[in-house]
């Protein structure tokens, strides 16, 4: 049972996520009582934390950039509160987490924020360690990734990336916290949604043109866009001039992939398709509510390969009931297919997901 009380509106969820890093589900019974008091004081943020009778206090100076930016100020307040809680729990428990106080943010995103502040690239790893208690190993890894991305990520305000959301799936995966609905339950809503999405896409493209911009990439996600019919997919993609533009479509559920739908994607100029096994173990797929088998994945993968798409596969490490050996088996199976991209996620039990708790 987790017992955390804070007087900082809007901070409880992120503080609780950090709290659970120290006391995961199998240790929840031993989790201590935590009281957090937050105050904006002259020149900074004061955090006072009580953990089973032990008291901690941390003051962090306000970043000058936050003076005229309310959203930035709110973000930095949360980071200050999380850092205070992290340092308190680290002292109380004697534990140190690899990513320090960081939760809910891509470390590279934070790294780019630091670079925009004027932090020198060679000082990036040390800054992550000092400001957020990231371990030297993880800080060095983040810095290496940023160096590897040099030349690929550019600041070009004329380039726009377009995301289209299709919030429908064949079944609801137990680890999924996205706002989505199964296609059978939402059948009456889908035609209207497709029409509105088509109109909104056209409006977005018109706005980009008015701003003198150009479309750089398109991502169609969800949900599972291929839960739509071939005709509905064609209607959605028909609004977008995809010639010479990278376009990715999440076809993550193998049970939704058909030759007819892939033909529509190919004809419309889609360049990349995600076909996601998540695991190569049928028992896990059943337990997670995926609604397909490993054999279904292989069928869908080979079918998509025939159309010449660049293919991405997703795997999830840490699925309930799987061992490290089970995951390594899945990794070997995925690598043997030689997809153009392989994405590894780690299981995260989020609010709104069946596995949460």
SSE arrangement:
Layout: E1 3-6, H1 12-22, E2 33-41, E3 44-51, E4 54-61, H2 70-93, H3 107-117, H4 124-132, H5 136-148, E5 159-166, E6 168-169, E7 181-182, H6 190-210, E8 214-222, H7 230-237, E9 246-250, H8 259-268, E10 272-274, H9 282-287, H10 294-306, E11 310-317, H11 324-336, E12 341-346
Parallel strand pairs: 1-2, 5-8, 6-7, 8-9, 9-10, 10-11, 11-12
Antiparallel strand pairs: 2-3, 3-4
Helix pairs in contact: 1-2, 3-5, 4-5, 6-7, 7-8
Concise description?
The protein is an alpha/beta fold and 357 residues long. The chain contains eleven helices and twelve strands.
Can you give a write-up of this model?
With 357 residues, this protein is of the alpha/beta class. It folds into 3 domains: 1-94, 2-Layer Sandwich (Double Stranded RNA Binding Domain), CATH 3.30.160; 105-154; 159-346, Aldolase class I (TIM Barrel, Alpha-Beta Barrel), CATH 3.20.20. Helices cover 39% and strands 20% of the residues. It contains 11 helices and 12 strands. Strands 5-8-9-10-11-12 form a 6-stranded parallel sheet, with helices on one face. Helix 8 (259-268) links the parallel strand 9 (246-250) and strand 10. The protein is globular, with a radius of gyration of 23 Å. The termini are close together. The mean pLDDT is 92.
């Amino acid at each position: 049972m987790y017992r955390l009380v804070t007087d900082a509106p809007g901070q409880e969820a992120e503080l609780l996520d950090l709290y659970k890093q120290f006391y995961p589900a199998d240790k929840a019974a031993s989790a201590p009582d935590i009281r957090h008091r937050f105050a904006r004081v002259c020149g900074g943020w004061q955090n006072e934390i009580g953990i089973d009778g032990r008291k901690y206090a941390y003051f962090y100076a306000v970043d000058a950039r936050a003076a005229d930016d309310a959203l930035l100020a709110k973000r930095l307040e949360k980071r200050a509160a999380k850092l205070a809680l992290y340092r308190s729990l680290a002292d109380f428990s004697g534990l140190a987490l690899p990513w320090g106080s960081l939760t809910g943010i891509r470390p590279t995103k934070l790294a780019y924020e630091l670079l925009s502040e004027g932090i020198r690239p060679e000082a990036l790893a040390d800054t992550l360690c000092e400001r957020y208690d990231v371990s030297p190993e993880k800080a060095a890894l983040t810095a290496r990734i940023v160096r590897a991305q040099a030349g690929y990520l550019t600041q070009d305000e004329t380039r726009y990336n377009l995301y289209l959301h299709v919030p429908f799936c064949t079944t609801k995966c137990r680890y999924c916290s996205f706002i989505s609905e199964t296609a059978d339950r939402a059948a009456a809503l889908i035609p209207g949604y497709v029409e509105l999405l088509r109109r909104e896409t056209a409006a977005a493209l018109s706005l980009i043109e008015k701003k003198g911009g150009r479309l750089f990439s398109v991502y169609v996600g969800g949900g599972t866009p291929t839960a739509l019919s071939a005709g509905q997919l064609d209607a959605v993609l028909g609004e977008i001039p995809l010639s010479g533009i990278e376009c990715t479509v999440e076809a993550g559920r193998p049970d939704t992939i058909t030759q007819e739908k892939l033909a529509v994607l190919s004809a419309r100029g889609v360049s990349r398709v995600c076909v996601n096994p998540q695991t190569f173990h049928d028992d896990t797929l059943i337990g997670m509510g995926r609604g397909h088998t490993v054999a279904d994945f292989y069928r869908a993968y080979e079918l998509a390969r025939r159309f010449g798409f660049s293919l991405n596969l997703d795997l999830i490490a840490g699925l309930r009931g799987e061992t490290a050996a089970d995951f390594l088996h899945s990794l070997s199976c995925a690598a043997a297919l030689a997809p153009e991209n392989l994405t590894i996620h780690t299981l995260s039990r989020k609010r709104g997901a069946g596995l949460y708790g």
